[in-house]
Amino acid sequence: MKVVKTIQEVRDYVVAWRKAGLSVGLVPTMGYLHEGHQSLIRKSVEQNDRTVVSVFVNPIQFGPNEDLEAYPRDLNRDMKAVEEAGGDLIFNPEPEEMYRGHFTSFIDTTETTELLCGAVRPVHFRGVCTVVGKLFNIVQPDRAYFGQKDAQQLATIRRFVRDLNFPVEIVPCPIVREADGLAKSSRNTYLNVEERKAALILSQSLKKGKSAIEQGERDAQRVIDIIRKNLETEPMARIDYVEVVDFENIQRVAEIKGETLVAIAVYIGKTRLIDNFIVDVK
Ligand code: AMP
Q: Is the pTM of this model over 0.85?
């Protein structure tokens, strides 16, 4: 397992692999890797001859009052995690390597980024799509791996890859959770002991919404109400949004049918956590 800091070094590796007829998978991350990231790496290792993991806290996807500075970083920990999961190369550029000089070109998306996190984090998806597009051009992978944990991101990347003809297959990966149900996230490290307990309200509330749908509820607003009511039982929780949208276009639906995303964002203290589930109702 190697770590490289420059675009040229990644390209040299990939060119050599391509010459040898090897396939390449890419797992884009912001580092501080956990089992969620490792599940993506393992999937890539299974499906490709070589796997590149990018570890880059992308400044342009953070708004002015967000946690860019505080975001946890630990390359040694990440090296161990990638090695353990069987990855071949970490690409860990400095921001200056990715955004040289006067940077003025962006991948901007519509529709799938209007609601949910797109509505409350105005520059976020433009930053995500731009860096992911750059990584696709740098690594030129056959496949790239994204977690359903960030479902709106997954739907958006799938869309721009299709719209802009990037020659890469997007492979979605299920949410990996802690034993008690909390979705694994690098941001969970922000939680103190009390907040960590309170954070369970996210997965618990989603579970209530999901079982209502399983029992035949098809009214989106009623599912939202069930989830909101349950979230409101936790005094440390402050709801950012609870939404029911179609997973393809990320637009609100009144009736639950087809592939439907139920997504929430909730502050526990100062930490903003997201979670979701997807149902496919025939
Ligand atoms: P991040 O480092 O948070 O930007 O995440 C990098 C990739 O890992 C994204 O595709 C995430 O959706 C995915 N990911 C993060 N947490 C999880 C999780 N708990 N389960 C599955 N995938 C995850």
A: yes
